Amino acid sequence: MEPIDWITSRSVHQGFVGVSLGQEVFTDLDFADDASIMAEMLEVLILALEIRNEESSALGLEINWNKTKIQASDIIVDAPLDVIILGHKVDVVDSFVYLGSSVDASGGNDSDIRRRILLLSWPVHA
Fold first, then answer.
1. Is the Cβ–Cβ distance between 52 and 31 less than 8 Å?
2. N or C: lower Cβ tally within 10 Å for the chain?
3. How far is CA 3 from the centre of its chain?
4. Strand 95-98 vs strand 101-104: parallel, antiparallel, or unpaired?
5. Which class for 31: exposed (0-12), middle (13-18), buried (19 or more C-beta within 10 A)?
6. Burial group, residue 113, by CB count within 10 angstroms (0-12, 13-18, 19+)
7. Which residues lie below 8 Å from residue 39, measured CB to CB, with a gap of 6+?
8. Confidence grade of residue 45 (pLDDT, cut at 50, 70, 90)
């Protein structure tokens, strides 16, 4: 088992983290050292990040808190602008880029299409 998979299994597969879609529960998406953890409640997500930090440190790894973001679904009306996790300010955002694709709180792909069109319109310098 790869270290990131071991850390993920220890931090998100505790029975509380995950988002239900039909009868399936999705807890995380990860690729190399990029990870996206899913939870239906902010408090559960914060706990999962705290556990992930503890399990990572045991292997000499660290969470890059500057790159860590929380995205609340657009159905959550009173989402805070940021939260403090283990003394680190983590922004709550409407969208973020994960593996080159823009992920929007609304669940649509309009922001990703606009982002890709904008990227294509930038001049390329050799």
1. no
2. C
3. 18
4. antiparallel
5. exposed
6. exposed
7. 16, 17, 18, 19, 45, 48
8. confident
